[in-house]
Amino acid sequence: MNKSRTYFFSMSTLLLIALLVLYVYDLTLGSVTLGPSELLNGLLGHEKDSEAELIVQAFRIPRATTAVLAGAGLSVAGLLMQTLFQNPLAGPYVLGINSGASMMVALSTMLGASFVGNDLSLVTAALIGALGAGLFILFCSIYVKNKISLLLVGVMFGSFAGALVNVIQSYSDPNDLKTFMLWSFGSLQNVAVDQLWIFTGLVLLGIIMTVFVVKPLDLLVLGERDATILGVKMRQVRFFIVLITAILTGVITAFCGPIAFVGLIVPNIVKMLYKTTSHLQLVIGSIIVGALLIVLCDIAMQLLSSTIHLPLNSLTALIGAPVVVWIIIRKF
Amino acid sequence: MIRLNEIVIGHNNPLFEVEKLELKRGKLIVLIGPNGAGKTTFFNTLLGIHRPVKGEIFIHDTNLNEMNRRSKNQLFGFVPSRFSGIQHLTMRELIALGRAPYTNMLNRLSKSDHTIIDDILHQLNIDHLGGKSTLEVSDGERQIAMIGKVLAQSTEAVLLDEPTAFLDYANRKKILALLKKLAERENKLVIISSHDIDLSIEHADEILAIRKTEQSLKRYTPPFKKDRIVKEVFEL
What we know:
The complex is a heterodimer.
Chain A: H1 2-28, H2 36-44, H3 51-84, H4 97-110, H5 118-143, H6 147-171, H7 174-185, H8 193-209, H9 214-220, H10 224-229, H11 234-256, H12 262-274, H13 279-304, H14 312-331
Helix pairs in contact in A: 1-3, 1-13, 2-3, 3-8, 3-11, 3-12, 3-13, 4-5, 4-6, 4-7, 4-11, 5-6, 5-11, 8-11, 12-13, 12-14
Chain B: E1 2-11, E2 13-23, E3 28-32, H1 39-46, E4 57-59, E5 62-63, H2 69-72, E6 76-79, H3 91-97, H4 111-123, H5 139-152, E7 157-160, H6 169-185, E8 189-193, H7 197-203, E9 206-211, E10 216-220, H8 226-234
Helix pairs in contact in B: 3-5, 4-5
């Protein structure tokens, strides 16, 4: 028991140090590359209102922090889906939860069907879409017992929502269409400084809520029947897990656009690295590894930006799809 | 411990009737019957997963339906017929999951929980397997660990759904002897379902048989007569 705890702590510390180093490195990258002294200056603000301070505080920190939160949130959402449906290939993207959010965002930006004010309208729309898709897949899981079939239902829902979005696009005016297209590429630079607090708050809320399902998740690895006999209130737990997933996926999708596969591959990497079924450890691992992966993606995008402009959604799909095939070959 | 009085067992449609039955602690009871007679439904009814079609079940004079989940999961433990193991889950961690009703929100094991788990590993003679993954051990060893998990739950009764169905002859004998010992020494009510008439006759304290055509439950006490049971239950 103690040996596995020590292993968990050393692995987490190692990954955290890597994350910190990459985060700081990411802060130096962008349209202007900052040297160590300029970065320090920008972070601590020795010279007031310097150019470095403006760049770091207004652009770099929001971008890198968004990367950390998006990676962490999507990975935790993926882990919850995988344990709930007992399927290593589940994740918010394959199950169509992203698509639900995208569809509502499309409705809101292009048809002007906004719910509240400006920023919040996008978030609210994405949340409603994500929750709707989550409840739909939960409802289907009652009837579809086969693991692969449930994934197919998610994929079908995704293409249905995608087709609806195409229909909406053909009716919308060019400006709205452009806004939507840019959003759908996925970007870590859409969160402005004054929005960073809402974004951080909502993602942290979702992550903190998982504390309440850690124990049910531990028992769910044995199956729903065993979990029920050991005291898990399945109905409540199922709904709560879908709610957390919807908050995390909805908020991140609203601010960063759809990000493919992160929620699917990170929990699988974490299980390989940590070699445990303890969900407290797996959640913490998913937060760190998820953040690490998206910060790495951002670094890659910044380094390549002079030669090609690589959208985030394409990059994660380029990495993610082969990993998914590899998981299928190993486990099925 | 468990009292059933004029109860119709079934899920949606009735399967069989139990006229009068009292199950006491300290006994190994084997439930037999043809496929589809309702063995699993009977277990699910006792576990409170679904209600009987007619009548109520009483446990220590309390209606099973009025019991809260907490007292229910300290009354019944359940072992499915097959557990195929989970990656990265060790035998010790599997047994530890049985402590879940007693741990805190984060499922953290206390010192006394660890002592209980150590004792169970020792009692089942699998100390040396504690750190092994549930995927690396044999079917028999995994089934013993599943029994360890219900022991960790420390319930008054344990239900096992065909616990020997996927085991070889030596492991079947071993598991049944172990269950008999548990019933006697730990004063638990152990109920298993089985298709293995010979082993059941050899080890059971009581045999309950579901008779499909008559839609009734018949109780046999030792000495068991195999020919009679087979004729009455399986109509051969």
